[in-house]
Amino acid sequence: MSTALSHPPLLPLAGEGKVRGIFRMFRMSRAFWLILPGLLLTALVIGLPILILIWTAFHEVSRFGVLLSFNGFANFADVFADPLFYAALLRTIVWTAAVVLGTLLLSLPVALILNEDFAGRGFARLLILLPWSVSLTMTAVVWRWALNGQSGLFNHLLLQLGIIDTPIEWLGTAPLAFMVQIAIAILVSIPFTVTLLLGGLSSIAGDVYEAGAVDGATGWKSFRHITLPLLKPFVNIAIVLNVIYIFNSFPIIWVLTQGGPADGTDILVTYLYKLAFKFGQLGKASVVSLMMFAVLLVFTVVYAALQMRREET
Amino acid sequence: MGLFTRSRPIRSLLCWLLLAPLIALNLFPFAVMLSTALRPRDEIFINPQRWLPSRLAVENFSDMWTSVDYGTAVLNSLYVAVASVALVLLVGIPSAYALSRYDFRWKRKYQLFLLITQMVSPIVLALGLFRLFVWLGWIDSLDPVAIVVAAFNLAFSVMMLFNYFSTIPRDIEEAAWIDGASATASLIRIFLPLALPALSVTAMFTFVEVWNEFVITLTLVRSSEHFTLPLEVHALASNLYELKWHHIMAAVLVATLPVTALFMWLQRYLVGGMAAGAVK
Predict the structure, then answer these.
(1) Which ipTM did the prediction report?
(2) How far apart (Å, rounded) are the C-alpha atoms in residues B57 and B66?
(3) Fewer C-beta within 10 Å: chain A N or C terminus?
(4) Mean pLDDT of chain A
């Protein structure tokens, strides 16, 4: 690689024609070698498990993970005959919808406020982003202790503030525990969403507002007719990304209740983890994994389509 | 854009007041950690509860540290994080460089492929990963954890590096070639030093992600001598016989504060750079 000819031409600059012939081939192969390590790593670590899951899903599997005979769609039938699956599926939909919407409704005003010019804005942004830095596992562990019915500091705080007058067993019953988990999930999703929306807000040039003001659009009008439409692509992307993250989110529910009490807070991911690593129902677990993977693939395609539409405009 | 009022002091007050409830909720877990980690053992399960302990029980940290061999967990976390970050950079830099500098036929497809790997959550593949590494006879070790975590973090790093790489003008490399440097040499000697800030920011973000990783480690690691910090804390909080919350909160603080400090310092790159990285 010492002669000048071996230097790969770079992307043709605007206006230049495409480089052809041997240069083009060489260029391709060089790019290929450059991306090969990344391709191999992800293809092996993410591709192989999917193949294994497909293979397992069509076999009868012993409790100890030994593949027995091919059994067609029997594992699929098992999953669809399991009432816990439907309960977890329904709860996953509620969970995803509630957390994504709640996050968006809170993040929008927060991002708008942080986009204002006010004293100590940098510090305020720091405090808003704070939960992002803590591992979800740790956050959930802290909340589990804080929500303790008798000695938890959350009840203590609410009692001090006079919001409640008797301690509440937050994690004692499934419906309440699930609502608490949704609230915590919203809280930890706000930083990412605010960051995304702030990026969008900062891309709106100031003169758009000045032009709007000339035409009489100020305050609410300028928000409704200028900010919101220009922010819409970012809102869309925030929704899709959050749907993906929340749909997959495991530690909050796992650490707080392990899907209990009485499977009452299970969503698909905790149901899946129990099937695989607690109940040893590997065939069923593979089927659930594959279904979730298919759903994620659809979300990803939607996201990619949104991205391309944004790039075109 | 002047949503509220023209007077800056009043606007500042208004902004802070509106943000106050959320900020309070964000600070609350930290208050719980501190308040619990610093109280004597017999002031944990008390009713009525209080915020301030009768004395500062700093011995909780050393007691916790020795009773659960926390140093090992810290070292395990460091090992996985450093190994993953190294692997992510080693594999991610060439990928990002190719994406930003070359026009090749599979470019779009490779980007979509990376996007899919970013969207797939480890939890969906947990069983497949477990069976893969059992089959390889490579279970209950930190090396496969580092490799898997690196693979799941690659897409984010490549996208982030790609965004920065695209801002580095290509004339500089071309000038180096004309001066007779080989492509590889110009990449290493000219390009990478220019990209150093981007590399370090990407490395640190990956570090925080890996440091906080839970599901993959939970799936691939069995014995407690290989526990990373989140796993150790999870194990402490899953103890069926006795929940030593003063120890658990001390453990959480030790695991969290350094990374939180690092993240707080990094977040300015996040708002400026990653918003673009996530969206573009």
Answers:
(1) 0.90
(2) 16
(3) C
(4) 87
